[in-house]
Amino acid sequence: MHSTLPQTPQTPQRPAAPEPPDPPEQRRIKLGGTTREEVLTMLGAGAGSLALDWLLYERVLPLSGAFGFLLCWYLLFLALYTLVGRLQWDALTVRERLATALAWSSGLLVLAVIAEQIGYVAVRGLDAARHWNFFTETMRTTAPLSPITSGGCLHAVVGSLEQLGLATLFSVPLGVVTAVFLVEAGTSRRSARFVTPVRVLVEAMTALPSIVAGLFVLGVVILTLGAEKSGLAASLALTVMMTPIVTRAAEVVVRLVPGTLKEASYALGAGQWRTVWHVVLPTARPGLTTAVVLGMARGVGETSPVLLTAGFTARMNLDPLHGNQASLPLYVWNYVKQPYPDMVARAFAGALTLMAVVLVLFVTARVLGRHRAPTERRARRPLRRARTTATAAVPAPAPTPAAVPAPVLAVESR
Amino acid sequence: MTAAVQPTDTRVPPPTPDPDRPRRISAPASPADRAFRGVLRAAGLSVFVLMGLIAFFLLLRGTEALRAVGWSFLTEQNWRTAAHTFGIAAVLPNGILIALIALCIAVPVSLTAALFISEYAPVRLRPALVSLVDLMAAIPSIVYGLWGLFFLQPRFVGLCRWLANHLGGPLPFLRVRGGDTPTSYTSSTFIAGTVVSLMIIPIITSLSREVFSQAPAGEREGAYALGSTRWGMVRTVVLPFGRGGVIGAVMLGFGRAMGETIAVALIISPVFRVSWHVLENGGGSISALIALRFSESDGLSLSALMAAGLVLFSLTLLVNVAAGFVISRSRSGASTSD
């Protein structure tokens, strides 16, 4: 026990500390981390279960398929690990190690699935995407059996970007204002009642089936108002999907704005409107940008709303107000169901492009979100300045939080 | 001061001063503020309006079909709009079956993944893992569909065949009727459910991770101080504390799984009878039905799809709102126990 204590600064100050009789015996006990036995046990169980799995799966039992093999390997590994662990540790330790192994393996499974998705789509998509014409041509002159060096997804990229831009234009103001409502509504008694229902409904809307959003816009815009299928209708359907996502993400960042900042603004005589516009929103701006870009990343991949509302075309349509407009998810959906290998290759290349757009948006959101910390610092600086001026003006300053513990310590030491 | 007067001096009660009451503070709102609050309230209420509009227009457009077949819309299994025999008695249970299979796979994986992120992963990796889960949620559903159709399905058939041949005896729902060819195991409810499970893992993981990480530090340390291992701490502190949030997350995942469209539509081959044999070729869900039948529909058949959409909408709304209340209740509990 004595050996694990870290060396305190008082020890050298003791006047005549006797030398400890056997200094070389003292070794620091390692508390965390993994020991060699643990690593070796895990490796041994892994290798043993792999061998056993191969023997059973490939030689003894009439089984086939890669997933079955991996599943059996995993189950055998767990069994073998428990057994080998039981030989050297007590039951409690074995359970602890097993829980750790389970947690790690499902974390790794999630990682593997993401890598798998991106990797598989990239490998299959490169068949068509490595020809430059894929990004510079439309499908206007491409017949089902045309070679892979003709045809591309330019019209779908343009359509996707236009629809996404319009949907962002519609959903961001609505989403951000709703988020501000959820945070600020407590100030007026009339709207405070609505906060919980609105929040629950927004949460429910994030899980709204995307096909229902498509059906809704189809029923309103196209069947009732009599408009034709167009990029605008598709962007309205995307708006229904994106607004709740933006609202939820924005509410979190708007709520993070320090209350002292708002109080300072109110104390200076600003109304609620000026406080929100000049203090809350600028402070939350980086986080809001992240919320918006995350919403865009979710919106650009939505297929079913677009499927019902945009129509489909193989040619370029720059006008989102009139006529069918293609988009990337629709492009993939349309060509992957065709029985021609080159068309399927094009669909995979379209999916790769879509994944690239999503990844770019996602990384942008993360990079923008990382700048949140400096904003908080910037937000705090005016406060500190205000505090120092108050100290200068008022003879008995209120104790700052940092100053409170010091007198208490002083009393105790006396 | 009161202590000095209190015990003996009962004859002459001191004149009680008026008790302190909070002064009524009224901040007259400027016209700009009043307009601003109006805008805020309008935005908040727009959510209600939007949901109401969705229900209203689906009902409006679906009335024709509902009137044509009446209550048999809920009991008819077939979907032949030209013959006026159509109903959701097959697609709805099949869709629920897909969602249940997805939950069976997703719940254990997501809960352990959430525990991994909140308890086991190295602290420095946690933000990266959280955003990876977010990324998994942002992968478009059509990519999941492509992956499931071209990558997962051919490698899954062996497992399905083994399950059907060896466990089909004691567990009849795993039986596969018809020939023992590879195609009789493809496009099944089970494979669609597996792909959907991957799509709902991120939502369940991120919501459960949120509630797990809110488990109070004092009780965690208490468990450790009593000699608990990490797993013991998780079992006795983190899991009971997060139960409400986890239930809500699972319900939300179920709602999401019910509404998944494109991946299911790509994989499943639609049949219009209830297929309890989950490994067998054929299945369906309302959303996949809409996506697959939409392009060839007009008039009555489109109206029938709208009616089916209304059923899907009301079911998922019910599940999601219930989940939302469960989650918000568990959140308010979290804020008081700190």
TrEMBL record, chain A:
Bilayer-crossing regions: 63-89, 101-123, 164-183, 204-227, 347-368
Originating organism: Kitasatospora phosalacinea
Annotated keywords: Cell membrane, Membrane, Phosphate transport, Transmembrane, Transmembrane helix, Transport
Ranges where the ABC transmembrane type-1 domain occurs: 157-365
Signal peptide: none
PANTHER family tied to this protein: PHOSPHATE TRANSPORT SYSTEM PERMEASE PROTEIN PSTA
Function statement: Part of the binding-protein-dependent transport system for phosphate; probably responsible for the translocation of the substrate across the membrane.
Name of the protein this chain belongs to: Phosphate transport system permease protein PstA
From TrEMBL, chain B:
Gene Ontology process terms (BP): phosphate ion transport
Transmembrane segments: 39-60, 96-117, 129-152, 185-204, 299-327
Listed PROSITE patterns: ABC_TM1 (PS50928)
Chief location category: membrane
Region (Disordered): 1-28
Keyword Repeat: no
GO molecular function: phosphate transmembrane transporter activity
Keywords, ordered alphabetically: Cell membrane, Membrane, Phosphate transport, Transmembrane, Transmembrane helix, Transport
Ranges where the ABC transmembrane type-1 domain occurs: 92-323
PANTHER family attached to this UniProt entry: PHOSPHATE TRANSPORT SYSTEM PERMEASE PROTEIN PST, PHOSPHATE TRANSPORT SYSTEM PERMEASE PROTEIN PSTC
UniProt-listed NCBIfam families: phosphate_pstC
Role description: Part of the binding-protein-dependent transport system for phosphate; probably responsible for the translocation of the substrate across the membrane.
Family statement drawn from the similarity comment of this UniProt entry: Belongs to the binding-protein-dependent transport system permease family. CysTW subfamily.
Protein name according to UniProt: Phosphate transport system permease protein
